[in-house]
Write a structure and sequence with these properties.
565 residues; alpha+beta; 2 domains; 9-stranded mixed β-sheet; 4-stranded antiparallel β-sheet; elongated
């Protein structure tokens, strides 16, 4: 590592960096339209849709995330209009957020190191495969990561004046308004500051306690400002209790962690401090001015302690939780890597740009091999939205697991995510999905993530019509010879139904009168006496599905569970 200095960047470094940045941009656009869709993406977009329709999250639409990201996305969502591929369009809107995140990486690195080191640090961060691929998705975590990097940028790229510390506190409060996982940020910052104070002599840090206390006060004063305004907004709109229930209470499972598991997590965290301390010791020995060495150490400790705390204590670990770690750790890890590459290049008498460019190219190969950019893996999920738009009207209620139909309200209040399903299985929430389907007369349902009683009801009262979708209906007679006598069935969800066979509309008597066209059927028992010549499979089905070109006899792609479900 070396201290920052004024210099002219070699043309070869600038040229290769430009090539890699443009390649990253082109790949991101390609992946926005082809990368597989995670179940969280439509969940967020369903809430964005609610904002764009004038619905209020927590009161009108359930969500267990803090609201700022979705609220900010609502104007663009509304401007784009209704599209089955809205997930892909909204992914493109994440590009400025990613660019700003990489700019923060460059800005911090440039305040520490040479211009060349800062440039390659930004290149490595932008194309590190786990970060690159996960950040393709439309999710709150992109904005959350950017706010984390902005907070670090504010803290280390200038003198820690009261205004700067207050601004960092504001940013941390904004992070909480985007994701409650920001408690990890707060813990990482606190631990990083504490570590510097404990080992202040190694980093050349003078402990000016009055100034430290004053600075901490300004920072802490900034943290609650934005969350308080957000909470006040919902309280004034009569949704304060619902917000508390969704964002706080729902995400904390009663009796979720025993004392033994907490102690075990704490021991894992302490064990994780060993490699973190080793890295800190390396930084402490660098020939840098004390103030600069302190800032470098702080960035390294904040990133490493975030990750260590996440692994030790967070109850549900997902790939998106790693997003804030990669660009933050790159600020110190990438310069070390560049030093090694430059050392090897000099030993092997290679051009200075050769090995950094080769390493970045290998990251590109890793990305492309992991997820071929021209292979469209979005078709099935986009098809669900397209079928929903074709089958239903805006005022129809549907039932999906996590908002995958996006543009329609869900009959049952809760999203069937991790904490909801845990609460359903433990009896903390009632399985009221069947009752809600009847109450809302929901004609269209998804088959994923449903609890057992709901799944039984859906199979009995809905028939498959497309990939992961069912509409109101029942199979009254399987294929085979005709059965003598009337076919009796019970309607649970009143709607307009028709009767079809593979040959077309069925002939016979429905409730004693000739069946010739779709009929509104009330809840309760009914019977159909088929024409004596009729045979084969006979299906009662929601009439609108047939009118709009769907058939219960169509071949449907097998539903295979993926990690994104």
């Amino acid at each position: 590592m070396s201290a920052p200095s004024t210099e002219i960047l070699p043309r070869s470094d600038r040229w290769w960096a430009a090539v890699f940045f443009l390649t990253a941009l082109a790949l991101r656009v390609l992946y926005a339209w082809h990368f597989r869709i995670d179940s969280d993406e439509p969940q967020h977009l369903h809430v964005v849709w609610a904002w764009s329709r004038g619905l209020l999250p927590y009161r009108d639409v359930w969500d267990n995330h803090t609201p700022v990201f979705q609220a900010l996305c609502a104007p663009l969502f509304k401007a784009l209009g209704v599209h089955a591929d809205i997930v892909l369009r909204m992914r493109v809107a994440m590009l400025p957020i990613i660019a700003a995140t990489i700019w923060c990486v460059w800005k911090i690195a440039r305040s520490f190191f040479t211009a060349r080191t800062a440039l390659w640090t930004a290149v490595f961060a932008a194309l590190w495969p786990p970060y690159f691929l996960t950040s393709i998705e439309f999710r709150t975590d992109e904005l959350w990561t950017l706010i984390w990097l902005l907070t670090l940028t504010v803290l280390v790229t200038g003198r820690l004046s009261p205004a700067r510390l207050f601004g960092a506190g504001l940013l941390l409060g904004l992070a909480f308004s985007v994701s409650m996982k920001s408690s990890l940020f707060a813990a990482a910052l606190l631990f990083a500051f504490a570590a510097l104070l404990i080992f202040r002599r190694a980093f050349g840090l003078e402990a000016d306690w009055p100034r430290i206390s004053q600075g901490a006060g300004f920072a802490l004063a900034g943290v609650p400002v934005i969350p308080a305004l957000v909470v006040l907004f919902f309280v004034l709109h009569g949704a304060g209790p619902q917000m508390y229930d969704c964002v706080i209470q729902h995400n904390i499972l009663p009796g979720g962690r025993s004392l033994g598991s907490v102690v075990k997590s704490f021991l894992h965290w302490l064990l994780g401090l060993l490699p973190i301390a080793a890295g800190g010791a390396v930084i402490a020995r660098q020939p840098l001015p004390p103030a600069l060495r302190c800032r470098v150490a702080f960035i390294y400790l904040a990133a490493a302690l975030y990750y260590g705390t996440l692994l030790a204590f967070w109850p549900v670990l997902t790939a998106e939780d790693d997003l804030p770690f990669y660009p933050a750790i790159a600020i110190t890890a990438a310069p070390a890597l560049l030093w090694l590459l430059d050392f090897a290049g000099r030993k092997w008498r290679l051009p200075a740009v050769a090995l950094p460019a080769l390493f970045t190219a290998s990251c590109l190969v890793w990305i492309v091999r992991a997820q071929p950019p021209f292979a469209d893996a979005t078709v099935d999920r986009i098809g669900i939205i397209a079928d929903t738009l074709k089958l239903t009207e805006p005022d129809d209620w549907v039932m999906d697991a996590k908002g995958e139909m996006i543009y329609r309200q869900r009959a049952s209040r809760y999203v069937l995510e991790y904490f909801t399903n845990k609460r359903l299985r433990s009896g903390l929430l009632p399985d009221d999905i069947a009752a809600k389907l009847i109450e809302k007369r929901a004609p269209l349902v998804s088959t994923r993530r449903m609890p057992e009683q709901a799944r039984i009801f859906i199979r009995a009262n809905y028939v498959p019509i497309a990939y992961r979708l069912r509409v109101l209906g029942q199979v009254l007679r399987e294929a085979g010879p005709p059965v003598a006598g009337p076919l009796r069935f019970t309607i649970a969800v009143p709607a307009s139904y028709t009767l079809v066979t593979r040959a077309g509309v069925a002939a016979g008597l429905l409730d004693g009168t000739p069946f010739t066209s779709p009929r509104d059927l009330a809840a309760g028992p009914h019977e159909f006496l088929p024409d004596k010549k009729g045979e084969g499979q006979l299906v009662l089905i929601w009439a609108r599905a047939v009118e709009r070109g769907y058939s219960p006899f169509a071949e449907i792609k097998p539903d295979i569970t993926t990690p994104q479900d």
